[in-house]
Amino acid sequence: MLMIIQLLIVLLALYVGSRYGSLALGAISGIGLAILVFGFGLKPGTPPTDVIYIIIAAVTCAGVMQASGGMDWLIQIAERMLRKHPDRITFYAPLTTFFLTVLVGTGHVVYTLMPIICDIALKKGIRPERPCGVASIASQVGITCSPIAAAVVAFTTISASNGFNVSIPQVLMLTIPSCVIGLIVASACSYKRGFDLDKDPEFQKRLQNPETYQYMYGNSATTLDKEISKDSKHAVYIFLGALCVIVFFAIFQNLLPHYPKADGTTEALKMNLVIQIVMICAAALMILFCKAQPKKAVAGAVWQSGMVAVVAIYGIAWMADTYFSNYMTEMEEALGSIVAQYKWSIALVFFAVSVLINSQGAVVVAMLPLAYSLGIPGWVLLGVLPSVYGYFFIPNYPSDIATVNFDRSGTTVIGKYLLNHSFMMPGLVCVIVSTIICYLLSMVFYA
Are 162 and 372 in contact (CB under 8 A)? Predict the structure, then answer.
């Protein structure tokens, strides 16, 4: 009974935090942690400091690149491609937002691109809900495919400590093709979704209002009129070079510095430290040689959203680790028989937790140690990694809300009954297909 009461406290803290959003999710989790420790006397778990340090380093680097104007150049490149093929916007838009997230490690970089996607679709006569819904999903799916995202780094770090040694490139070799296929299938399902604009009675009714017509067709969202300096382009080159260095050392770890251990053997510099060192150095180079202003970086959307993620992971993961570490035996007894027979069912647990926690990195940090303690093999957990994205289910995530507001046509919506929203179908299709394919690939290569 005590275990159930404490679990309800954990869930209540997550629910209340998600209602307030932003920093509140991590801060209110701190209240849950305090109740568990001071109220019930549970032994505190371990805060995920390694993951937090990596997020800080990666977000600092990406934020400095944004401050230099480099992000504008990436958005311009994406916009040129989309405007060159407007009839394929439903397929190209999600792939564009996906790869932007893969590069930068956060899905919040797409806010500038989303109004452009809507504008292209609307001017082409394509129902904007079709590309916008799946593009918003794609911006979050890319997190498990980014070499600097917290979810990927946390997975490799925690897996290594549990005897499953898999590098970041090995993870990406499975998640990237799996998620791309999932997005293509979701795009295909969205291709003829809903009424065409000329046959949509609600849209046609709105067109009768001159002010609404002017609102929808009077303006054109674009970044192509921005002048990109050489310094901005050089900042992008530095950022991409840093990613290449990280991937290189992840593949050839024998080239890393080695240090003696107490037992007389040596160990290589850990990859979590490599990522931090390379990212911080890249940020410094952009400040020194690309005229990136630190104050502007701190005020940017990328840095601020990254710091929110730090607080969320700090509070959520610490509270979850405190609860699970104190009831590990009971958890093994309750879930052991199920996961022993259906190991893939852990994907349902990951997805369900993600619905409550708006952070894929936090889901990995909080739930992966429990999964390993239940005896689930590492290849299974790698195979179900795409399932840690489930927070589209309840449409309260900033990228989804922003997409609804960016769609001037009013076709991208949060339904009357909350769950019948524009992101549900593409989200479920993409996550299910991606998880199945990633599981099969992991079975072939690592089982």
Answer: yes
